[in-house]
Amino acid sequence: MDDFLKWYFSARPVVAGLLGAEGYDHTLGDFSAAAFTAREREERLWLERLAQTEIASLDDAIDRDLVLSQLRGAIAVQSWPEWRRDPAVYLGAVFGSMFTPFQQRLKPEPELVSAAISRLAEVPGVLAACQANLDADLAAPLIVQRALGPARTGRSFLTRTVPAMVEDPDLRARLAEAAEPAAAAFDAFVTFLESFTCGGTWRMGEKLYSILLRERELLGYGAAELHEKGRLAWADLDERMRAVSTRVNGGEDWRAAMESLMDDHPPTLADMRAEYEAETRRAREFVRERDLVTFPEGEECQVLPSAEYTRPVLSVAHYLAPPPLTSSRAGVFFVPYTPDDFTPEQIRQRLRTNSRAQMPSIAVHEAYPGHHWHLSFMAGNPRTVRKVFRTPYFTEGWALYVEKVLHEQGYFDTPATELGHLDCRIFRAARIVVDTALHCEDMTIEQAETFMATKASLSPGTAQGEVSRYCAWPTQAPSYLTGAIEIDRIRESFTGSLREFHDKIAGSGGLPLGLAEQVALA
């Protein structure tokens, strides 16, 4: 396993650096077509080698099977190569490697600046590799257009946003100067994307989608069964919400009730951040008082505006975990600010989808005992590979599962916040229905946007952004409710306290659900 991780990190230095592995923070790595195809060959060799390895203990078996699931997934998507389809593969490496180290500040500022300058020198080459690798027959216009939003922030991000995070004026000036060639490369890259003509599809297809569910996520079913689970979950939640709605506005129309509740929102983006911060503190104290989990020493969760480069493509709250290969236990709950060019009405709609009725669920999901608690706690797991590989079917499933736990514990203590909690859950059921239908060619984009705007409490603009995300990231959107249901099912077979179950299953990592069940019930 140590040999495998050494290979994995050397082939993906940005990933290694963001995880906190030492010695990988001065390069972006090789993004040439030759490097991608070489990694694909090596993945097959590693699968063969690890599959034949004899295992002496359950922990070793879990580690080995975790890596095998990742390798089988990676080999399956070789027929759907993102590096030929999506500019985000390249943009994500640049943005993440430049922003995250300064956000986390785990090293002295001179070292951070030195590493950033080294990486900046490689940005033109990475963007050139993207231009060479994008295949006009595979890339879809929707995916390329989606990448244009972040790409257009590239110059400002590199020359202003990142240098502004540097406190020393001399170092700040050096970094800004070094950023100029990379910014010029971004200018040219935007021009390239604007004129790039392509005709590929973003639809993955049912066959590959089902393979990933079964072999990477270790679920016992494929896309059709998952679609049906989502449909049934939506119907069940719809019935529950009708009952709660009568306590909100006297009628069973929960959409009308949510529309009314969404008008009660923070007046500005800054107020939204402040209210989320207060709600995060309240959730932490509630979880501690109820003894629902064991808190790791030194954990801390900041609540900050979302990064500028994420605003064109992420319209919802999200979380940045502490690097698990370091001693840090500090994470960031990013509040979904809007791009600078949004109109007052667009900003109002963003605020409405972060209403005071919904904020408690979102804070629980992102912070306590959701993502922040889970990822800061699991960073203490001694098994290195568990810190490197995790699946959204566990991590997102966990965050939605604990929303239900806090509902059971009485955290959502008004009809409004209870309806808001159920609305967050029915939104995830709608995601299952839409994501599977989109990629199995059963729904158009327009139908998907209408479904999300009418079957969940999303504004048309937010629904549009959500559907764009599903098109670009197949299989991820169903992970929330699917994982939550599976973790709930595992809990039913566990003998012990709620805190013992939570510590055991979440502390084991972010495992595919089949492996998580083995750990929890061993």
List keywords for this structure.
25 helices; 522 residues; mainly alpha; 67% helix; 3-stranded mixed sheet; 3 strands; single chain
Indicate the proportion of strand residues: under 5%
Largest sheet: 3 strands, mixed
Order of helices and strands: HHHHHHHHHHHHHHEEEHHHHHHHHHHH
Helix content: 55-70%
Q: Provide the residue-averaged pLDDT.
A: 96
SS field, number of helical segments? 25
> What overall form do the CA principal axes indicate?
globular
Structure explained in plain terms:
The chain is mainly α. Helix 6 packs parallel to helix 9, helix 7 runs parallel beside helix 10 and helix 14 packs across helix 16. About 50% of the residues are buried. The model has no long low-confidence stretch (mean pLDDT about 95). The protein is built from 25 helices and three strands. It has two domains: about 150 residues; about 300 residues, no CATH class.
Secondary-structure blueprint:
Elements: H1 2-11, H2 13-19, H3 33-51, H4 58-76, H5 82-85, H6 88-104, H7 109-133, H8 141-152, H9 154-164, H10 169-195, H11 206-216, H12 223-249, H13 254-262, H14 269-290, E1 300-305, E2 318-320, E3 330-335, H15 344-352, H16 359-366, H17 371-378, H18 384-388, H19 392-408, H20 415-439, H21 445-455, H22 460-472, H23 479-492, H24 498-507, H25 513-521
Parallel strand pairs: 1-3
Antiparallel strand pairs: 2-3
